[in-house]
Design brief:
The chain has about 290 residues and is an alpha/beta fold. Helix content is about 55%, strand content about 15%. It has a 5-stranded mixed β-sheet with strand order 1-5-3-4-2. Strands 6-7 form a two-stranded antiparallel sheet.
């Protein structure tokens, strides 16, 4: 019970720990030593950081911002055991990389002494909350907590602040071939596209068709329902492109439920569709609707 309580506190307190609410004073108050500055060479990346991809263009943009305004939000680090003047990043590797590009010699930090387990939890939560991870990085981070610390999917959902179906669906992406993992990392496929490829006969062939034809998630699911083979007939293209607000709502609902949500509307009304593949997922949707 004590461990469950600590996990709940971890999830609730992360925003304050990493300064996600935009107030550095909160970070200072929760730090043992307050905010301080460290030479940039004293800091090193976390080899267990679930985030592996750092877009060069985005780093350049952040570096330009840092040159003009400095680092507004401090980097969260922990002391490296047995090494003097050495600190490992818990949250803020992107800021640290951009600071180097900007030519900074010192950076603001908040130092916390946490275990390997807590550092991994915090790294995953920070990246998930900021939507900095691609779907495969997120899945690999979840799997790392399961493999190394015996987390259940329910534990992960509690700590990460996502629904259990979202965790289960994200983990299921690891069943797909490495080539499809690459498409996800490169942004050629979304998590919704990839979920439609799970358990099909030839997922790589279908993935290529989705990318080449620019199919939507709904069309990819229709492709799967049509047989899933390489010769399956693609669904017709939608005659009207959805506006940005509708796509944003679909993504928000999909992230909350961990399932594919599509919205079709017109001047006379519309419908919301929630896709599921197991009865457990359907039960979870029903439970949420009944308790809403």
């Amino acid at each position: 019970m004590a461990d469950d309580q600590s996990r709940n506190r971890l999830g609730r307190g992360l925003a304050a720990l990493i300064g996600d609410m935009g107030t550095e004073s909160t970070v200072v108050d929760r730090s043992r030593g307050g905010q301080r500055r460290l030479p940039i060479e004293f800091i090193r990346a976390n080899p267990r950081n679930p985030r592996r991809s750092f877009n060069a263009g985005e780093l350049d943009d952040l570096a330009n911002s840092i040159r003009e305004k400095g680092i507004v939000q401090p980097i969260v680090v922990r002391p490296v055991e047995g090494a003097r003047d050495s600190f490992e990043i818990i949250a803020g590797e992107r800021r640290w990389r951009a600071a180097q590009k900007a030519g900074l010699h010192e950076v603001p930090v908040v130092i916390h002494e946490v275990s390997d387990k807590e550092a991994l939890e915090l790294a995953i939560i920070e990246n998930v909350q900021r939507a900095d991870l691609n779907a495969i990085e997120e899945a690999q981070g979840y799997q790392q907590l399961i493999d190394e610390y015996g987390y259940s999917q329910t534990d992960l959902a509690t700590v990460i602040g996502k629904s259990r179906p979202h965790v289960a669906n994200t983990l299921s992406l690891l069943k797909l071939p490495d080539s499809i993992h690459g498409y996800l990392r490169d942004g050629k496929l979304t998590a919704g596209h990839a979920r439609a490829l799970i358990n099909v006969e030839d997922p790589e062939a279908i993935a290529k068709r989705i990318i080449d034809a620019g199919l939507s998630v709904r069309e990819a699911e229709s492709l799967r329902q049509g047989g899933g083979g390489a010769k399956a007939k693609a669904a017709p293209r939608a005659s009207r492109q959805k506006d940005a607000d509708t796509r944003a709502i679909e993504k928000s609902l999909s992230d909350r439920l961990g399932l594919t949500v599509t919205i079709d509307h017109s001047a006379s009304g519309g419908e919301v569709k929630i896709g599921y593949t197991t009865l457990e997922q359907l039960d979870e949707v029903c439970r949420r609707l009944q308790t809403a």
